[in-house]
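<goal> How does this chain fold?
<sample>
Here is the protein in question

***
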Amino acid sequence: GSRGAEHRAAGDRRGAACGRCPLTRGQLLLARIAIVFGVAAVATAIARGITLRAKEDAEDYESYRLPTSLKPVSYLVRWAPRFEAPLTFTGSVDIVVEVAEETEEVVLHSAGLEIGSVHYTLTDASGQPVVSTDDDDSGPTEIDMSRVEFHDEQETMQFRLPEELEVGEFFMLTFTFSAPLGQDMNGLYVSTYNYTDPTSGQTTLINMVATQFEATYARHAFPCFDEPAFKARFALEVSNVPENFAALGNMPVDTTATAALNDARRREEAAAGGPVRAWNSTVRFLPSVPMSSY
């Protein structure tokens, strides 16, 4: 105890360490200050890194979002699936769009679709063509496909309209497209079920077509503004529905039309191993309430 007191006294008197202490009291204080500032600097660097990472993540997230300059009002989607090999579908969609911000640029979603053509028509809110003040032509204008850009990572397509549109104007985009039917239960996909003939007892594997759009798979079935905020009315039309098949949708059936298959089509289906049918039907459903694409 006396040695400790003597040691402390010696250190206090000299303001320096005795033989047993390598640092003076002042040096110890400076060392503590340096440690505190060092820890603070590390914490600041970590926080800055987190902030920069968060900013980069936000910018990366925004690069996948659609612009808000256009707002879809309604869709008329037409599909013609094949129930025999090759399991593909063709289709078209009319999208009535409202201009929310002055623009001539169109960006919307499309994934895994072969786009055949794009047409633009100036319309009213219901989709009826109106006469353009520029050329007095109310007919559709074809968009040059060589000027349509496809962004695979973002699953979008982008192109310019032939004119800049003002807020409150409406126009229609018409796309034709084709694609294989999905095999992974996403988008517009093929599924199967077993049918057992009640007379012969023979079981047959039958193809059917279904949809799964949540969360981001509507874009695999037709070009669309495939984000939840872009709510619109949807009307669906399905053609090539085989006889003895039923077409089911979220909305009641509006119209059904049947058509006899010609001999060439019958031979084609027979060669593909499918059932030989006499006719197929086209079913259109009533428009939905405004809702998201999924």
